[in-house]
Amino acid sequence: MSKLSVLSLFIFAATTLAVPQPRAPAAAPSGFDITGVTLSGSGCGSFVSFVSPTTKDASVIFDALFASAGPGVSSSENHKNCVVSFAVTIPSGYNFGLKGLETGAFHQLDSGVSASQTATYSFTSTTATSPPVVVNGPVGPTSATVGHSFTFGSVRSPCGGTAVLKVGLDLLITGASGDGFIAKDSLDLNQGDHYDWVTC
């Protein structure tokens, strides 16, 4: 083998080892618990939260999380958001992020009016944002289940201990040519579909 080939292999190996490799997903561990749910934001309204008997899954039902637009509607009603904070206990030796979540939505949009739905999550100051889900009018009264996805490994919880998982829901109505309305009626998190675990 030539000196050039040996040098090339050495450089390749060195650069490969220098790049941190993502950890492989792990099976859901025992010891994870959701211990509390609180809400904050301009559009949350009243709510009811449910934590499963296993304390692994949670649902939040919203009474008045909606954005609207149209003649006579204040522009402050075009954009609403709500942050749902889940207090969690994380088993030692593991951390997790979200690979996705599901929300229930209702929308009614005239021609020329669009509704955008975005979800975020964070544990500290770093936030993961899902691609926006956009619905363009005209759309009659429609209920839908909306899936929001996140890049694997983009934001992780602390390794073990307690933390607060903050899930943000953002609603935006654009277009002044007609009436528009979009509401979120539910948020669901479950261990089987939405968490991604790795060892740490």
TrEMBL record:
Q: Which terms are listed as keywords in the entry?
A: Signal
Pfam family for this entry, one: DUF4360
Q: Does the keyword Transmembrane feature in the UniProt annotation?
A: no
Signal peptide per UniProt: 1-18
Q: What is this protein called?
A: Ubiquitin 3 binding protein But2 C-terminal domain-containing protein
| Species whose genome carries this gene | Coprinellus micaceus (Glistening ink-cap mushroom)
